[in-house]
């Protein structure tokens, strides 16, 4: 890093310090090869205002922030848990590979994202590997009743991670090279909507292009746009969504 860039980043970090919560890593639990559950603790977390479904942004090095959905926030003990998915050699993946218990970690938030605190009726969620955090929160909020649809690279690994998290009631489909799996998944979601008159909300999360396709298919089937809640977590060739 050049000296001017280093100076600017130190100045920016100092300016952001009043908004950032300083924490220490207290636990690292490798659920599977690519799903890592990380717990961090910090005094300011006892004052945090978190709405289930909200997000935090974690500094994964050199003021590079990545967004995660807390699956648990204990304001009594000042502890926060996030589930991370390793996507290739991204800045977050490099950070996680080198992470140790006791390391410092700066966190921005919690902040608003999807509000799962006041759900009415039955709900469903579409997503992928990056959606397991919000999936866990959603099932906690619905006593495991939320219906979950996930597109993934490895169905075996994802099933193992979900089992460790205690998540049930899911449909997992491996990605196809031509994205035909999205049509199959949309068909199952449309059928669920047809059979369940009490289905009030379908959350669409994960990859932006997959959300776009699923959303179109659901709307073409007659599902109103008001029933769909969208939050893209990543897009091909882009970083820092949500």
From TrEMBL:
Return one GO MF term.
Answer: oxidoreductase activity
| Domain of life where this protein originates | Bacteria
Enumerate the InterPro entries for this protein. Answer: FAD-bd_FR_type, FNR_nucleotide-bd, Riboflavin_synthase-like_b-brl, SIP_fam, SIP_rossman_dom
Listed PROSITE patterns: FAD_FR
Positions of the FAD-binding FR-type domain: 18-117
Tell me one Pfam family matched here.
SIP
Protein's name in the database: Siderophore-interacting protein
From which organism does this entry originate? Answer: Leptospira idonii
């Amino acid at each position: 890093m050049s000296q001017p860039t280093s100076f600017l980043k130190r100045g920016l970090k100092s300016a952001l310090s009043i908004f950032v919560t300083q924490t220490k890593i207290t636990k690292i639990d490798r659920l599977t090869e690519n799903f890592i559950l990380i717990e961090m603790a910090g005094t300011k977390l006892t004052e945090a205002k978190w709405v289930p479904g909200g997000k935090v942004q974690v500094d994964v090095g050199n003021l590079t922030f990545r967004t995660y959905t807390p699956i648990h926030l204990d304001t009594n003990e000042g502890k926060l848990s996030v589930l991370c998915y390793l996507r290739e050699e991204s800045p977050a993946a490099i950070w996680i590979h080198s992470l140790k218990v006791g390391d410092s970690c700066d966190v921005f938030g919690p902040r608003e994202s999807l509000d799962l605190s006041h759900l009415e009726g039955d709900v469903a969620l579409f997503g992928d590997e990056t959606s397991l955090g919000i999936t866990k929160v959603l099932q906690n909020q619905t006593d495991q009743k939320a219906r979950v649809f996930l597109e993934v690279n490895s169905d075996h690994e994802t099933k193992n991670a979900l089992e460790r998290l205690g998540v049930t009631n899911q449909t997992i489909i491996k990605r196809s090279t031509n994205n035909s799996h999205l049509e199959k998944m949309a068909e199952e979601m449309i059928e669920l909507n047809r059979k369940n008159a009490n289905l009030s909300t379908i959350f669409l999360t994960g990859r932006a292009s997959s959300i776009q396709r699923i959303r179109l298919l659901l709307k073409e089937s007659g599902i109103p746009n008001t029933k769909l809640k969208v939050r893209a977590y990543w897009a091909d060739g882009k970083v820092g969504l949500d």
